[in-house]
Structure formats: structure tokens, C-alpha cells
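Hi there. Long-time user, first ticket. I'm pasting a complex I've been working with (about 501 residues overall). I'd like to know whether the download I got is complete or cut off, because the file seemed smaller than I expected. Thanks.
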Amino acid sequence: MAEDINSTPEATIERIIDYLKENKRFDGRKLDEFRELIIEKNISKKAEGSVRVRLGKTEVLVGVKVGVAEPYPDSPDKGNLMVTAELLPLSSPRFELGPPKFDAIELGRVIDRGVRESKIIDLEKLVIKEGEKVWTIFIDIYSINDDGNLLDAAGIGALAALKIAKLPKYDEKEEKVLYDKCEKNIPLTDVNPIPITVHKIGNKLIADPTKEEEDASETRLTIGISDGIISSMQKGGAAPMKDEEIFEAIDIADRNWKELFKKIEKIIK
Amino acid sequence: MTEFERPDGRKEDELREMKAKVGIIPNADGSAMYQSGDTIAIAAVYGPKKMHPQHKQNPKRGVLRCTYNMNSFSVSDRIKPGPSRRSTEISKIIEWALEPVLDLDKYPNTVIDVHINIIQADAGTRCAGINAASMALAHAGIPMKDLVLSISAGKLDRTIVLDLNKAEEDFEDGEGATDIPISMTNSGELTHLQLDGKINSKQLKKAIEMARKSSKKIYEIQKKALKESVNF
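Hi, the file is complete. Here it is re-exported in full:
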């Protein structure tokens, strides 16, 4: 029977810090290096777009569904966007049943802002009848195995799923979405936002932490970036960061964005 | 009887193409995927572990706790994430289906969590979930008297068929569709039976017999996947 699986032993955390002093990680990666990224598309035929994203042992499923709804009162000329994340108890002994806890809520919200603020979805093209009927784009995220950095995996998944997602036909007379008739893609602009989270451990900055490394992390900065342009950020954790650390984190995010986006492009073609 | 044709051309007792894989979730103590046609279920087992809160502990035997959850994008009309009345009921049904093969007396004060997630749905999701969970429990090394095999029998108009897909579940001609999800041990004991529709006892008997016969195919698939998980 496993004992306390809900935290990494103090001795392991101390060793992670010692290794980082010599710019080393347990798995031999460079400090700013991601684990192997594997993306598999169309994992659910019932989604308008769906992917499985693996970063090392971390795995998430991301699906895009669309529906028809009323627009929000403050944006009658725009489609709606809704992002939810579920940290399934299936994916980690640390996740419990019950209403979404802070981590799931934050994950969904940070992904939402990364997508929304980058304006990747051309929401104005999702109006069926102004003020009355618009498309709602749902991006739903499910964790399957948590070995750290679920957020970046989810963000990669959100971008990839949006890129391949189709928009079904809408039968205005019957007021019905014809899910099996998809002709167009979801209207996207030419940005490609990916959230990249940099963690501070000791005085070192690392990308794509494993679960153990996340447990050792003092603070983190998530940077929603597309080709050098930042459109969302979130600092999490209580330890302070210096200006130069923030800009180094942005450099790390920018470098990784190029590599990650190349892989996403390969999948969506 | 023979003139009836299934929408996808299958024989009456023909199951959809099955796939199974064990050991798909590294964090879990046991895990498995089971696919029947376009229905895909995954299951993870955590435990036996100490039951919290303490007042839920049973000093005589362990507790099996199942959760069944459909991904929002597993069906055409998006499902709102989170538990529903339907998923709550199915979760309990799954507990009842699996518990008879477990020797929970050996694990007092503990809980075995079985989490089932439906990735893609084309009918028969609870059956696929039970098949995945049965393998995941075995993979977790929990002593089992038998594997549990689950299959949805059904009646389309007057013809008994097995492993209905969604198009068949929505069949409306004649007497319409009767859906009979059944789970049983490999030795043939029923551990789960539900029915929605219209049927007489002779027809039900035939449906159960057909399901029992074809469940052997599921047993072979489960056994093969479990063997593969230890062979590399």
C-alpha cells in the first residue's frame, strides 16, 4: 500500500535543488528543455476537434465542441468561448472527487485567457444572428496522467485542437446543429498562442517540470506567447521574482514556443 | 427472423471490433483501455488505500468505490462536465457489477477507487467501462475470483442482437429497440442486469444466453491484454 503519495519527500526535493546548482536534472534534460512532446489527433470522433497530448508521462485530452447559444449581453456581435478543465481522480492519487478545486479552476482560467487574449479565435465571424444567436466554442480539458506541467500540455492541446476543429452546419429553419456536416474550419487568426510555464527552484529557472520538480518549485510564471508576442501571464506561488528572472523566463518561453509550434504544425497538416 | 439486417451489416451475435490495452496510466496502481467499435473507455484503479474520512472505514471489509464519467466531447451534443444523475447511477451499478469478484474481506478499513472515463461514445459505454475496470483491477494486482465481462444485448423490433451501437439504440421500426446491458463473471454468474424497452421472458432468456456465449470473446481479449502487459 502506497504511503503518502501526495507529496515528494524532502530528501528528493533537496537533491533536485542540489542537482540544479550544477545545472542538472534527474532526467538529464537541460534546464530550459521540454520533455518529448507527442500529439495524437482526432481521439474522439464526436468532438469538432480533439487531441491527446503527452509531455513525457504527463497526458491530457483536449476537445473542442461547438454549440449555438445567445451571445453575452456585453458582446452581442461575437461568439462565445468557454474553457473548462477537469483534473480527473483517474489521473493522479492527489486529485479527489468533488467540485473543482483551485488547481482545476486556475488551469481552466489561465488557458481561457491565453486563448481569449491572443484573439486566435475570430469571434466576430461566429455570429449567426447578431444579438440573438452565436456559436459557442467549448474547449474542454481532461487530465489523464499528471506527471507535472499539466498546464502547458493543456495549452498545447487547446491550440492543436482549435487548429483542426471543424465548424458544423447550422440548419436555421430547424434550429439544429448538423454535427455530421462539417465544411469549414473554426475561423482563426494568424496567432498561435502557447502557454509556457517557467518555475523557479533555488535561483534557477526551469521549463516543463515533472511532478517532483513542481513540488520543489518556489514560484512559477506562465507566459502565453505567440511568436514573441505575449498576450497573457500568470505568476503563481508566493516567492518573489526579480525583473531579470522574469525576462529570462520570457526568453525561455520564446525559445520553446518555436520548437513546440513546429511540432503542432506537423500534426495539423 | 433472418431477413432482419443490422444497420452496420453485423450478424446478430457479432460484436464490434474490440481492442484492449493494459497499463495506460502510469500514476495508477492499475489501468486499462477497452474499445468496442467507436466506444472507448479507460479505467484507473487506486488502492487498496486507507479510507478517508475515517468514519467511512469498514473494519470488516474494504470498500469498492467506482466513478463513471463521460468526457464532454465524447458525444455530439456536448455534456456539461462533472457528475450527473445518470453518471451517479451508473457509477453505483458498476460497483455492484464488479464487487462480487473481489475479496474485500481481506482489506478492512481500505478503499479501492476505480475511475472510469469515456473518451468516445457510440453506445454501450457502461459495458466498455466495466470491461476496462475489470482489467484495471487485475492489473492493480488485487486478488480476483474471476474477471467481469460486460456486453449490451438488445432487441431490435423482434430480433435479439448483441453490442448495440448508437444507431441501433435509436432504432424505432416495429417494436423499436430494447437495450439490455448485462455483466457476468467468466463462470457465467450475472452481476449486472438492466433493461429498457419491451421484451418477453423467452426473448430475454435468449438475449442472456447469447450474451453469455459471446462474453467468452471479451474474456479472451481481456486475458490477452493482461498477458501482454506483463510480457515486455
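A couple of notes from our side: Chain A has five helices and twelve strands. Residues 46 and 179 of chain A are 8 Å apart (CA to CA).
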